[in-house]
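hi! just following up on the protien thing from before. the input was this:
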Amino acid sequence: MQYRQLGASELQISAVSLGSWLTYGVGVEADATRACLDRAFDLGINFIDTANAYGRGAAETVLGELLSSRPRDSYVLATKLFFPMSDTDRGLSRAQILKQIDASLRRLRTDHVDLYQCHRYDPETPLEETMEALSEVVRAGKARYIGFSEWAPEEIAAAFAIPGVERFVSSQPQYSLLHRQPEEQVIPLCAAHGVSQIVWSPLAQGVLSGKYRPGAPAPADSRAESETMGSMMRGWLQPQILEAVDALRPIVAEAGCTMAQFALAWVLREPNVASAIVGASRPAQLDENAAAADLAIDPALFLQAEAIVAGARRGR
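and the predicted 3d structure came back as:
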């Protein structure tokens, strides 16, 4: 496994990391979750990403139980806040930040997280209040570093301009061969300020793995067919997207890897990307995905792939 520095922090995180959105504590049974987590550690994956809103605490609770037997310094743990945890608990106010970090730490069975992230921007709370509260969390030792997910460039720049507060070290955008919007402004802005990308959905919800074929039903055991995990898939299962992905097969064959590995290696080619988050319901998926970190693929093949999917990209 390859390790990369996370922005201006002292954290070294695995280039492929394990996420828990729509999976652990929600769509994947406990035994399978334990097997995936054990396999992740075997493969050298040391970065675990979750959020309080995943199953409204369920993912954090499961991970807290499974991680409690491991030395705390053997993994890098990240969680997030913003989305509703009750009818009244949501957002990035000082009160919510101080409340939600304590609740997350209880569920995760730890006294600190390595990275505490704003899951989205909160337009209802002054940014200064959010940044000062996050700084309180860091200075209290409850989080080592802070990050954000899916903030607009102007929101990111405004946070950088606030004096006397802790600095962000990470950005968590959606980024893949089919969704390249962060390249326009977010990645250059972050690179100039010591902020790395931790990418979510690098496989476009599994579409770039090649498992969904044009005109064919989705595999019975796939995320698209899951009642709990398939809700976010519909926008990706469009004919033009599936046809473009299917056209990548000759290029991927020339690269000598699987479709998923090619897509992950494409994301990791970007110097500002510290890690690509993958989900897994079976350990074998991690075996395949983790191998992408060490691939050396001809950049010319990446350029050919970009040209093929250009007309089907989202987030352009």
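The mean pLDDT is 91.
The chain has one domain: 3-211+258-296.
cheers
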